[in-house]
Protein 1
Amino acid sequence: MKKSLLALALLSAIYGITAPAAYAKDINLLNVSYDPTREFYQDFNKAFAAFWKTKTGDNVIVKTSHGGSGKQARAIIDGLDADVATLALAYDVDQLQEKAKLIPKDWQSRLQNNSSPYTSTIVFLVRKGNPKGIKDWTDLTKSGVSVITPNPKTSGGARWNYLAAWAYAKKQNGGDEAKTKEFVGKLFKNVPVLDTGARGSTTTFVERGIGDVLLAWENEAFLAQKELGVGKFEIVVPSLSILAEPPVTVVDKFAKKHGNEAVAKAYLDYLYTEEGQEIAAKNYYRPTLASVAKKYETQFPKVKLVQIDQEFGGWQKAQKTHFSDGGTFDQIYQK
Amino acid sequence: MTTRKNVLPGFNLSLGYTIFYLSLIVLIPLSAAFIKTTELSLHEFWAVVSTPRVVASYKLTFGASFIAALINAVFGLLTAWVLVRYTFPGKKIIDALVDLPFALPTAVAGIALTAVYSNNGWIGSWLEPHGIKVAFTPLGVVVALTFIGLPFVVRTVQPVLEDLEAETEEAAASLGANRWQTFYKIIFPAVWPALLTGFALAFARAIGEYGSVIFIAGNMPMVSEITPLIIITKLEQYDYAGATAVAVVMLVISFILLFAINGLQWWLSRRNGSAL
């Protein structure tokens, strides 16, 4: 064993001397992402490195940083030189353009499906046997039901939760704004703890045992069900939810600075290939490629989904109406 | 005004260096916060810092910090007393334990406290039937702030107590003072300034605390939202100016409070000094 190690070291030393650095380039790529993509990008980065190695012979080392979506976007704006950004919502990516001009205005139309290679949705996670009989959004407003969701002000995921509830209530009340507001207000009166991020809420629900239902990303709900407590939780799919599109983009300014434009673009393109889509599906993200979507059809429950652009007029508008200071979310807590 | 020559050499150099160093480390970053707020007009500034939700958070942050510092002043003094005056097995370990809240990442402290005090935790499950809820209430905020503030009081009072000779207490006793008289006439005046310093440090630390509190607070608007969370929330909406506006208010209040405590301390030590 020792001998072979020594031989290996010698060999690599000789190789190092005889083969100049230009032979196989080492490329460092930084992907700044949001919280629940941790497991997904771990798998995906490995696959991409192998793909790039066979294609060009170069070694790519992809580093991925995770955190709350808004916090990650701010880090990039403040100078964290990410080659690609893969965040929870388009609003955060928009800020890269607005605050720091790091990407062009039309970034979202550069890749297919609004630059979202995988999608997700919001579902309910309830305790085994569903003791409170929760089936749809209306059940969340009943007294005696305790709902866990992070704070929409600090969590991207929670904004999707909020908008999904809003869309349901609006439909139910025939578009009546006041009644919709009342419905969402009643729902949030049932929320005992507002954690700052999606993972925090999952911990509150799973580990602390607080609440009857957790509003969560579908992939996070699957993860909680399969890995945190097998047989302790059930997923309930509401009659209507929202299509969550976590967008990806090359951060042009920084990728150019590193000379990584080509590999950064290839990295994102690879997300759309059959292999990339397969890895996404295995990590409980809904694939967008028809062939892979068909293959994993049974894994993802069918649910009626509204879209942010059609229902809320895009993220900029939704943010302003609902989550800015004095928006509909703040109004819930005003006395 | 005449400049009196100081007996110690190097006054100009060391003062110059002190001011330079303080500027670099403290004043420049703080002034950046002030400058950022100038993006807002006075009217906007006032609107941001006086919304009911923000005002509720000031009350919680300063109120809970004050209570926590008060608790620490009482029990920190007791702890320091025990560590200085008595010898018992395991004393070194207890002495080291006091510093733990210094070293522990505050998020870890927050998660640990929440686990213990939530209604399925060791202490929480025992308090819950008595109608006492700690985790996810303002009471939880006090608990977390008490935890992180303890070492400040113990470590400032301890050396003063160590310097205080046991003989003075014995002398007081032999002159006919009872225990209570010994405490408030002999011990208390000596440790009072140090205790106040410890209180001020614990209080200041508690005001700025974020990591441990957000896990146990529950973060409900108007009820258990601390001011540092309000600042983070504003940053999360890319409202940099609004965030710094709230931060500036916090800074000013903290500065006034600390200044007042320091003034009180100075006044006390002067009064004590002249009485001796």
Protein 2
Amino acid sequence: MTTLIRKMMTADSDSTLLVKSLQFLSQRAKAVVLPMVGIAVFLVIWSFAANSIDTSLGKFPGPKAVATQIGNLYHEHQSEREKEAAFYQRQEERNAKRIAKDPGYQPKIRAYTGKETFLDQIGTSLVTVMSGFILAAVIAIPLGIAVGLSKTLNTAINPIIQVFKPVSPLAWLPLVTMVVSAVYVSPEPMFAKSFINSMITVTLCCLWPMVINTSVGVAAINQDWVNVSRVLRLPSLVHVQKIVLPASIPAIFTGMRLSLGIAWMVLIAAEMLAQNPGLGKFVWDEFQNGSSQSLSRIMTAVIVIGFIGFLLDRAMLQLQRLVSWDKESANR
Amino acid sequence: MSILLDISKIDMVFPTPKGDFTALKEVDLKIKKGEFISLIGHSGCGKSTVLNVVAGLLQATKGGVLLNNKEVTEPGPERAVVFQNHSLLPWLTAYQNVELAVKQVFNRKMSKAEMQDWIEHNLRLVHMDHAMHKRPDEISGGMKQRVGIARALAMQPEVLLMDEPFGALDALTRAHMQDSLMEIQDELNNTVIMITHDVDEAVLLSDRIVMMTNGPAATVGEILDVKLERPRDRLSLAQDAEYNRLRSAVLTFLYEKQRKVENIPAQSSSKKTGETGDLQKVDNTNDVDVA
Amino acid sequence: MFKTIFKQPKHLYRKIMGQALVASLCLSSAMLANHSVAEELGYPEKEELKFGFIKLTDMAPIAIAYEKGYFEDEGLYVTIEAQANWKVLLDGVIDGRLDGAHMLAGQPIAATIGYGTKAEIITPFSMDLNGNGITVSNEIWKQMKGNIPKRPDGKPVHPIKADALKPVVEKYAEEGKPFNMGMVFPVSTHNYELRYWLAAGGIHPGFYAPHKGDTSGKIDAEALLSVTPPPQMPATLEAGTIYGYCVGEPWNQQAVFKGIGVPVVTDYEIWKDNPEKVFGITKSFAEKYPNTTIRLTRALIRAAKWLDENDNANRPEAVKILSQSNYVGADYDVIANSMTGTFEYEKGDKRAVPDFNVFFRYNATYPYYSDAIWYLTQMRRWGQISEDKPDSWYFDVAKKVYRPDIYMKAAKSLVDEKLMAATDFSDLTGEDGFRNPQTHFIDNIVYDGSKPNEYINKFSIGLKSGDKI
């Protein structure tokens, strides 16, 4: 009898387990299947639409054309890497020959002069956006904290921020370019001017949302926390470090996510406009080429740009979850 | 016993767009070492303002506060505050919240190990040693308030200032907290000023109950000496004649002598802006709990 | 990727490996070293160079010099970068972002005389002859076609003159519609060629008056010319912003392929074997880095020779290189149309034009003074040079900008080092820099570079001696 009951109980718990795991699976399945369906429907609509749009450069690229281009671009990248290896090989031999003839010669290895592949351009854009973003954060977060803490400073700086905030960083681009070429002169520059230009443009567009969000976050700190700090007589620096900074982390991250999103969009446009290396230049060059493959390459770039933008945002979100005490704000 | 804290004829005037608003007028109170004082009065009468002036968070317009004959000009850990809504830093664990205070107050006076012992001791005192590595959002409201008290106690203050410390808690938790507080008080015999709305709480905990008149220009109305034997037990006190006399004395003060007349449409005031809330003369008659 | 960010290579390990290799080779070759070569061309002073270009097939010598390793043979490590438009390219060379560039012949000349940005730019190397065409939109072509005489097979007789366009322009004028056309730059070959062709057909392309601040070139104009970057020409034509344009390849053939326009005339027909692009560097670059200058000229000469070798035998390979996305990037077929000796006019009307792109034949690479002077005469003709200048001024400017001395040093050392044969340059011994009077213009006016003022006075449309706007 008892064994029977026990059996029934185990059967029962087994079945609840089963039900539970089924529920879990169906939830999982929903999370996986629904986006899949969405993507599939999108792909079908895309390929139909693509088929019915004729441009002077041929049909609008569909999913298949893009897939082919991804393959092509990867192969191009690989063959370029082979060429690069050969380039260095030749250079070493040439240096060796010259040393033989001219023993005083200090051999030098010059960087590869070949073209940037699609993957190189992705890397360049990513490095540029991250450098500009980090530079902006280094400037904007302390500035935002200062502005948030001091009403005087806030009143003094606010009009400037409000005027510059709505300016498209692209409008700055010509000025940035001219100033960089006037100011950034060194015989052996560490960074390429084009990189500096793009980076500063990114910095300019990241700056305002970060300053504003940080200062708002700092100004809106719970007064009780400030009082705690006052009662403890925390020195200003400790106050900023232990109270202000952690308290405004959610607001700072909101600003950072906002500006990284804008920065990525602006960078692509800036690269197109200024012909600075990166994905934007890739798109523009392909547009200028006007070959039968151009549109599908541009479409590939568009998708890759979107995908990277999405990943950047996700990465920021993960970082926020990791750093911020306010788990709620990371889900917004 | 000598006077530890001398609140000497303080006036508090707030400038407003409609002209000056006198919140406090000649509030005068002398407190001895080891005394437990409750401040009771209707909402908006300026209890929090008094507490904030003592804490040094606000500066009195006239008069001043002397602690050990030294004038109070700024906040400091010798006047630790337990805020109404615990005000723990949410990014720190219970332990770290207390640690922040201990590190600041006992910097170079204690070794690392001593500090750790001291922090743990204070958390044990409020029965929070089991959850000291939890963050505020992982513990209940009562527990948060316990940590808040532990933090204040850990500063070894000369005066402990408590602004409606149990106001946001449910009745059961509140009773529990009051018992804990009495236990601690038995052991440490701190000088305490506590603001409360709760008549029973005031009678149960205090040595003296300071009843404040309604604002504007609120001041000390009456002072009631509570000469009940310690340790006090809430159950036996319920039958106690003296207890009930004191209780009704407070109620009489509040509901007969200082009955509030509603003439300004009620506005909601947030607890956060406690001191400015006093400006708005907000009142609701249910404000004082008669539990 | 990293070279776009870091200027200095970071391959330390390569350096170490390289030095090891060097050391081992040093030993073996020290014994073999031959120190007999006297007056050898020195090593380049500057080895890492960046050259700019516009996406046009006539940039080929730069691409070929890179791809065939001619630059590296000279110890030059060259990065080649497409530029957005001619202005950006010129500014790049002037401000040092670029070491040198594929330029419109008019650019170094205009920069030197201060029309536009003033800067001393020189050219030791002329990049090609011919290579441009004039394309009109399908709509205009329909209206023009009736005015063109037909061959027995029904196809239009070439060259098509602007006379056929004149009634169309007049019709638009009557309707009050401005007749807009595109060219690539105010001092571009294309501007002068388009103007030459229009004026030869009696259509006034308008004067410039820079002394009055008017640099739009539309004074008295019947056809209004404006600037559009070459790669955008087809798109602008398709959008209807312009009715026709003059541009280099592949942008005329692109219009045929896309079916949006019809090339009507090539510059070969307007002026047979006209000089076109040059390779421009700043004067200070040439003075600071004389060996680099000679060496890059050598590489370009070899590339040009390769392009024309064995009767254009290498052209298909060249087309393949140019169709790479980092060079011209257009489809192979589009580029091949003009580069391999044919030119497609109206769809299906493909004609042989073996000399459409000339890179080396007919001394195409030699920087003739007379070529510079022709551009100066056209600048004067259309008012970009607002005042009369004596003949001697024309010669002086030409000698400042065009540098056959550098070219000859490069050529001589190539022959000395047996990289090229003396016969490759046989015509140039004793060259004075002036071509013989040239007769093959569409309006049959003869050009003699030694008499610029006399030449200017021959045109019916255009400023003459003493004219001022």
